[in-house]
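stuck on this one:
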Amino acid sequence: MKRLNRLIPLAILINIATSGLAHAEKYDFQLHGYMRSGILANSDGNRVDSVGLMPDGKWRLGNEEDTKIELIPTVTLKSDSGAVAKIQANITHQSKCTSDWNCQDDDGHDVQFREGYAELSNLDFAPEMTFWGGKRYSSSNTSSHQFDWEYIQYNGTGGGFDNMDLGFARFDAGVYAFSPTDETKAYPVDKGDQGYPDDYSLNLWFKKIAGTGLDLELIGHRMNRNENHPTSAEKGYGVTGVYNFDGFWGLTGGYSKLVMQYGRGLAAGDSLGKNGWGWANLEDTQSWRIVLDSLASMGNVEVSTFAYLQKDKNYRWWSSDDNGWGRTSWVAGIRPYHQITKNFAMQYELGYEYLDDDNYKGVNGKGKGGLTKITVAPTLTFDSGFWSRPQLRFFVTYAKWDKGVSDALDGNYNWNTNTIDAGGYSRSGDTDTVNFGVQAEVWF
C-alpha cells in the first residue's frame, strides 16, 4: 500500500497532462534524469564515507559513496494560440538525507518529489517571458561539478517569472519558501502563533547587464523566530555579482566566471548564496565569498579548475552561542581530463581544503588545518569529452589531513550530548587514507 501511495502523485501528473490534449495543438512527453552510484572502500576493506572538511561540497572524483537517482518527467503542451505550458516533476532518491524534499519519513531514504511546478510561456501579452509557480529549482542555480557544490542555490515552493526585457538587462524574479527538514516541526517563539516559521526569500536577477557578461543578484530573506533559535535573525539580505568571461579567462576555449557574494543576517553563513539554511544566524552575522570557476578546453585535454575563499563574522552554527565567532575557509583544485580514445579517458584530481573555525559546530571542536586529496581515475566513456556521460570510473584516492581538523573531517554532531562523535577516519588516530572504488555516473 505504501508503494502504491507513492505512485499516485505521478499518476495524477500524467492524467492532468493528458486530459488537456483536446485543447492542445501539440503534446510532448520527455524523461530526463541523473544517476550516480558506486562503492568507496579503504585499504582495510571497509566501506567509508567521503573525505572532506567543508559543510558543503567536496572534491568529488573518487570521493562519493552515496547513490542518487533523479527522474525528471516533463510534459509540454502547445496551444493553437501559440502559448506553451510545461509541467515538470523531479522524482529523487538519495541514500543521504539532505533537505526537506528528501527526508519526510523516519528512515529518510524514500523516493521524494524535489520539484513539481508549471510554467507558461509565449503568452500573447509577454511572448518572451516565462511565468512559473510550484516547487522548483531556480533557473539561476549555479554549481561546480568538480567540487559538487551549488554556490548559488535557491530552491523551494513559490512563484515568479524569468526573462523580462528591461532594455539594459534581462530580469528574473521569484519568491521561494523553504525549510530545512530539522526545523519544519518547530513552533514559533510565541506559541499563540499558528503554523511554523518558514524562510521566505525574494530573489531578483539582472542578467547580461549592458550587453556584457555581468549578472547581478539581489536577495532578501524574512522569517519568524522558532523555539529552537529564539535569538536568531528575522531578516537578511545578500548580493551576488557574476562576470562570465569568454572561454577560459580569454586564453582558450571553455568557460570561466568570477563570482563575488556578500550576505548579512539570514543571508550569511550557511545561507550565503542560498535560502533556508541560516536559521540560527544572528542579525549581525556577515559573510563574504569570492569564487573562481572555469574549464579550459584544448582538444583532447580539458582542465577543470575551482577555487573559493569565504570569511564569516559573528558566525553561529545551529547552536545558542550569544555572539557567534569567526570562520575562514578556502579551497583550490584542478581536474585534468585526457580523452585517449573515443571510449577511454584518464582523469586526475588534486584538491586542497583549508578550514579555520574558532568553535567548530559550537562545541569547541577542532577546526584549524588543511586536507589534500589526490585521485587517479581510468574512465570508460560513452563518447568523447569532459561532459560526456555515461561514464564508468575506476579510481584510487589518497587523502592526508592535519590533526587540527580531525573533528571537522567526518565527525558526527550528537544532538543529545552537544558533542562531536569521532568519525571513521579520525577515531584510529590516522591522518591519511587510501581509498578505492568504482562509480557509474549518468545524465540523459
Summary: The radius of gyration is 23 Å. The longest helix spans residues 2-19. The helical segments are 2-19, 406-410.
